[in-house]
Amino acid sequence: MSKTQSLALFDPKLVRPALFQALRKLSPVAQWRNPVMFVVWAGSILTTLLAIQASSGHDSDAAFVWAVAAWLWFTVLFANFAEALAEGRGKAQADALRALGRVTQAKVLTEPRHGATWALRPSTTLHAQDVVLIEAGDTVPGDGEVIEGVASVDESAITGESAPVIREAGGDFCSVTGGTRVLSDWLVVRITANPGDAFLDRMIAMVESARRGRTPNEIALTILLVAMTLVFLFVCVSLLPFSIYSVRAAGQGTPISITALVALLVCLIPTTIAGLLSAIGVAGMSRMMQANVIATSGRAVEAAGDVDVLLLDKTGTITLGNRQASAFLPAAGIGERELADAAQLASLADETPEGRSIVVLAKERFQLRGRELFEASFVPFTAQTRMSGVDIGGQDAQQHGKRHIRKGAADAVRAWVEEQGASFPRDVNDTVDAVAKRGSTPLVVADGRRVLGVIELKDIVKGGIAERFASLRRMGIRTVMITGDNRLTAAAIAAEAGVDDFLAEARPEDKLRLIRDYQSKGHLVAMTGDGTNDAPALAQADVAVAMNSGTQAAKEAGNMVDLDSNPTKLIEIVETGKQMLMTRGALTTFSVANDVAKYFAILPAVFVGAYPQLARLDVMRLGSPASAILSAVIFNALIIVVLIPLALRGVRYRPVGAARLLRRNILVYGLGGVLLPFPAIKLIDILLNAIGVA
User: Fold this and answer.
1) DSSP 675-691
2) Could you tell me whether strands 293-295 and 560-562 are parallel, antiparallel, or unpaired per DSSP bridges?
3) Can 517 be counted among the known catalytic residues?
4) Active-site annotation holder among 130, 313, 341, 350
5) Which of 152, 362, 381, 431 is an S-S bond match for 350, by CB 3.0 to 4.6 Å?
6) Under 8 Å between Cβ of 524 and 543
């Protein structure tokens, strides 16, 4: 699903179903999930019964009671509509995804070997461990891992990106997703998900709000709102006997009516934030989806907003990621051609982009091309050894002796050379330091006991990344660069990029240890990963973003999946989480603040019959007690509708610290929440008196 596909906020396709859902949510079971709005719902029923009673008794206040009852129902409906509209956006995204999950015919192999026969079966009948053949033009029938072949795959239906990607057996790019399409060649895939558990199925369940659980902060805020509601409920219930006693003792005045008390209660309790709270959470997940990120729960989105440590891979996130061989720097007494020849041989088993670039550079500089090797045993590059190479015997050994050529990280090759009983040359060590200090990556080449020289790999720090890290720092977020480079290279790039710290020569266990260290100090940590070796660290991190192009193990370990497989997306994810928390905080501040103004409107009107002196508090000079009460109730309902766009779009993201953000919320939403109701309630009162409603 493309991240450019986004429905307008009040698109008719969303509004009509949301209106119907708002009516359905009037059921007591649905209302009970929101205790504050349940109180409003109960008050609506009570005032409706009072209105029916007043009408049957030909009471002169029947019209007023009916008006209050109607606007209390509108308050509940508007809150339901806000939630239903947010859910509707999620369901629209889910429907678009569901369209991708059409049933296809899968070519199931009877034996996962060359030449095996296959039989057609519907994709819905596939189970984990089934092996399927997918040829050019076929749709991938389910999630799986490539065990044979290499092919170009169109993943635009999932990621929105038109450029095809390469999927092949082995490595971190062996995962395929159901609903994508093979464009060329063929793949043999082992299915990894049972029916209903495929990635597409989980995506649909994640974006459908029915599966959204309440987050810890949301639960805590709900408890606070319920506590405030209970306090005001007890206060309002106790006011009725007090007013009756006061009127009898004074021998004049009228007691507070139950309708006025219900209106007072609804205006006192925090209905604005209570009505929008669920919509804010649903909209947060929806905004993640618009960024092409699937969050497994609202908890993950909220955690992204609370994160204060970001672990970022250097390659592809901080740098452009296309690190290429740029120079051969031979040791003393070694020719550049000899170094290039050995480097090329040692890189033949290195399938990384860096390894391939070394082979290409040797071809371009010295026309070194394919040659015949006798009794050659290749040593592939691994993250653990951080070396690749070749052991050569036979005819080549007769000319040069038996050769053991290695190329890799300086410390790894140094240890390997010392194991051979040789020492590491000082001039090569100086070259390694010089290359590292200028921000490049040095790789050392050795032929047995002889150290031949250094290969320089260059990478470029992304433009604007330093400014982005600076904005994160202003928000109190610490950035840590993770790299397999040596400390000097890591330090040079970290200084250029402006990160706060770095972890050099990082292995999977080092990442896990670093995350645990930060968490033990009370920090919340976010990281990205795509390989099986990243799975332990992803499982440990508070916010773990797995790349869609990565392995199934990485996806299972993470609590978010980036469909674009863009490591830089982690910064955007944190900003989206922060925006959701900012929105919730801003609307909570506004909701509590605007109650202050409603007190001045409704309190004098409610109590003026029993306590005439309270008329002095009517600073707005409202038309009558009835119009004052009704104006406050109408404003209380309409403000929910006015704030729906803000709840769904979110407040504007600003990279500021918590203290500054609190001051801004108090100034803008606190002061605004106090001031706005005064002119709004006065305007409603003027309109009501002009049309003779109150």
Assistant:
1) HTHHHHHHHHHHHHHHT
2) antiparallel
3) no
4) 313
5) 381
6) yes
